[in-house]
Amino acid sequence: MEIDNQNILERPERPSFLKVLCILTWIYTGLSFLVTLGAFFQGPLNEEEMTFQKVELAKSTSQLRDIGMNSFADTFDQIQRMSESTNEHFYVSSIISLLVIVIGIASVYFMWTGRKLGFHLYIIYNLLTIGQLYIFISPSDVPTFAVVWNLLISAVFIFMYSRNMKWMTD
Predict the structure, then answer these.
(1) Residue-level pLDDT at 123
(2) How far is it, in rounded angstroms, from Cα 79 to Cα 85?
(3) Phi–psi pair at 169, nearest 5 degrees
(4) How distant, in Å, are the alpha carbons of 5, 6, 31, 75, 147 from that of 9?
């Protein structure tokens, strides 16, 4: 069988910027996957561990209130309630997190191979990462800075990936 070289379209080399972004994202999502998987097998905190965590956080919150940093103390209270809620729904929350991380890994793989589908999946992955907080946690218990920070980082990476859309096909 003879291959007609004129009919084979050669794709330009993968942009270096895309390589760097993909590798950074794979490192982050890979570590997130391993940490979440490890925590899944370790299981939720028991009553004693939750009590210890509450006491330690209460000490920090009290110290913050003593020096007049009430907004930080309120954030620590939110983090404690968030932790309790997540621990209460530990296994379901962990499985959802693992699935979201897998979507992130797959999205980067698709972009690595030059498919625009990966870019769109990456946007979905970022929205799911932020949205999954609200499945088991009351919106009043989610610190605003955490949502804003995640949105900011997501927007920056989505923007940087969008600069490579010219190379991707679909």
Answers:
(1) 98
(2) 10
(3) -125, 165
(4) 8, 8, 36, 55, 43
